[in-house]
Amino acid sequence: PLSPPGAQPSRLTPDPLWMPVFPWEEVTLTCQGSGAPGPTDWYMDKQLWWQAGSHHIQVSKSNPGGSTYQCRRHGAGLSLPVTLSFSNDWLVLQVPAQALLEGDALPLRCRA
Predict the structure, then answer these.
(1) Is the pLDDT of residue 70 over 90?
(2) Is 11 exposed, middle or buried (0-12, 13-18, 19+ CB in 10 A)?
(3) 78 in a domain, yes or no?
(4) Pick from 10, 55, 18: which is nearest to 35 by CA?
(5) In which order are the strands placed within the sheet that holds 27-32?
(6) How far apart are the first and last CA of the chain?
(7) Which of 14, 27, 53, 70 is placed for a possible disulfide with 43 were both Cys, Cβ 3.0 to 4.6 Å?
(8) Rg (CA), the chain
(9) Residue 41 counted as domain residue
(10) Is 82 part of a structural domain of the chain?
(11) What residues make up the domain containing 91?
(12) Using CA atoms, how far apart are residues 78 and 57, in angstroms rounded to an integer?
């Protein structure tokens, strides 16, 4: 569905903010938007996946397929995509889950 004209995009924030995460961890996705109260549309790999009254969901490695998520709060626009990834490695180099623009600093984190 199209967003209302002039609607601000929703904002999708993962917690934790770093990817990849270990398989036993859960990621909480929170959708914020300036639209009216109402359901939140959740998209996985550009397909409508879930419509919920809640503005946050839990995602884990055991959830079905897909790794790119977006959301739309009622009356707001579609969020930018967030890509989740999981790693079985004992040592991972993590990057922010949020999209970066050319010229942005790229923080890195090593985690065991």
Answers:
(1) yes
(2) middle
(3) yes
(4) 10
(5) 11-15, 27-32, 56-59
(6) 42
(7) 70
(8) 15
(9) yes
(10) yes
(11) 11-111
(12) 16
b/e per residue 19-35 (b: at least 16 CB within 10 A): bbbeeeeebebebbbeb
- Using 50, 70 and 90 to split pLDDT, how confident is the model at 51? confident
At which residue do the structure tokens 């549309």 appear?
Answer: 41
CATH number, domain at 23? 2.60.40
Question: Which two three-digit tokens encode residue 109?
Answer: 């984190």
DSSP state of 97: S
In-domain check, residue 42: yes
Q: Taking all residues of the chain, what is their mean pLDDT, rounded to a whole number?
A: 85
Rounded Cα distance between 101 and 35, Å, is: 26
CA–CA dist 60, 56 (Å, integer): 13
User: 76-98 pLDDT, tens per residue?
Assistant: 899 999 988 888 899 999 988 87
Residues 6+ apart with CB under 8 A from 25: 16, 60, 86
The residue behind tokens 């709060």 is 73
How many residues appear in the chain?
Answer: 112
Number of structural domains in the chain: 1
